[in-house]
């Protein structure tokens, strides 16, 4: 977490949390969701405005974490901005040398792989569960064919409970949890 964020938290410890305003899609892209977009439906249907500012994206990614309930958030100074997830909290990018990176560019170590009913590939890593980016499926197929990964079957709706994450903190809040 950035030092300026830690300082803001110490100075203003009781700022209300924000829900519904930020989303992470299945390709590792961040979206800002204003009131109009939120009213149009959940994140998977109504994404909002794609963030393109590299420094803002880097700031979000440096200050991205999960709370004790598995809700992912961006700590924006003293305010916790909960993230709506299209699929998983991480999106993995495969590298030609066999390495795997998170959508924030940091390398991860793969523990296991999973394949859902729609053919999407997930990797369980030292940073948690994530979806393999669709553009990297040829590299993923190479890894499976080489025997580096042996995907286990999984249902996409089982992933949040199995790996302890919440896709929609906004829906959880509305349900009173």
Automatic annotation (TrEMBL):
InterPro entries, per the entry: DUF2944
Superkingdom, natural source: Bacteria
Protein name, per record: DUF2946 family protein
Organism of origin: Hydrogenophaga borbori
Organism classification: Bacteria, Pseudomonadati, Pseudomonadota, Betaproteobacteria, Burkholderiales
């Amino acid at each position: 977490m950035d030092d300026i964020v830690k300082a803001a938290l110490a100075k203003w410890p009781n700022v209300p949390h924000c829900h519904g305003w930020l989303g992470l899609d299945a390709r590792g892209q961040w979206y800002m969701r204003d009131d109009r977009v939120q009213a149009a439906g959940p994140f998977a249907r109504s994404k909002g405005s794609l963030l393109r500012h590299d420094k803002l994206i880097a700031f979000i990614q440096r200050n991205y974490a999960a709370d004790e309930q598995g809700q992912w958030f961006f700590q924006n100074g003293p305010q916790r901005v909960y993230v709506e997830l299209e699929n998983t909290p991480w999106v993995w990018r495969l590298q030609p040398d066999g390495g795997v990176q998170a959508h924030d560019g940091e390398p991860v170590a793969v523990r296991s792989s999973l394949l859902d009913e729609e053919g999407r590939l997930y990797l369980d890593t030292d940073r948690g569960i994530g979806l393999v980016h669709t553009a990297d499926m040829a590299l993923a197929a190479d890894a499976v064919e080489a025997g580096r990964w042996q995907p286990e079957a999984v249902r996409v709706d089982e992933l949040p409970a199995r790996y302890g994450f919440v896709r929609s903190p906004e829906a959880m809040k509305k349900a009173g949890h």
